[in-house]
Amino acid sequence: MKIWVDADACPAAVKEIVFKASERLKVEVCLVANQELKIPKSPIITMVKVPKGFDVADAYIVQNLNANDMVITADVPLAALVVEKGALAINPRGELYNEGNISERLSVRNFMQSMRESGLIQGGGPAQFNPADKQRFASTFDKYLHILIKKSK
Predict the structure, then answer these.
(1) Cα separation values, 126 from 5, 93, 129, Å
(2) CB within 8 A of 51, min separation 6: which ones?
(3) What domain range includes position 13?
(4) Which of 34, 78, 83, 135 allows an S-S link to 58, with CB 3.0 to 4.6 Å?
(5) SS3 100
């Protein structure tokens, strides 16, 4: 079992939660980004730098993902691919993506993107990450991490 982090836009607070859990529970973590990131010195925490480009990090994660893995991402299309492969995907704000909600999330994301592209909506984007988001993530992450650990034994 491994935790993958779509790390380019992942909040630092989320990465810290993942690092601490990794060390405490001895679970491998791999951050994937198109730039060099600081990570703790640890044999179980690694970082892969991929070339810049559209969905390059996503493709790397999907190609290397196993069904008993977890992916931390705010990227809904990536989350859809993760769920399709039978793995878990969690948003940095603590939302679990699953077979029951991913198609709706993808539809809403695509609709909003088309509205922005047509000029009907200006700007947008998620609200600033806050302490409540951090707490929701920590709770969801902890719950599903323990489920995966039990499942992998």
Answers:
(1) 19, 10, 8
(2) 34
(3) 3-152
(4) 78
(5) coil
Residues in CB range of 82: below 8 A, 6 or more apart: 61, 62, 65, 71, 73, 88, 89, 97
Model pLDDT, residue 107: 64
Helix (H) or strand (E) holding 19: helix 12-25
DSSP alpha helices (H): ranges in 26-130?
56-64, 76-84, 102-117
What pLDDT digit, counting tens, does each position of 42-58 carry? Answer: 999 999 999 998 889 99
Both tokens of 48, joined, read 């892969």
What's the CA gap between 149 and 58, in Å, rounded? 24
Please give the pLDDT value at position 9: 86
Tokens in use for 44? 């179980």
Percent of the chain clearing pLDDT 90 (strictly above): 72
Hey, what are 64's tokens? Answer: 């290397």
The CATH number of whichever domain residue 63 belongs to comes to: 3.40.50
Number of independent structural domains in the chain: 1
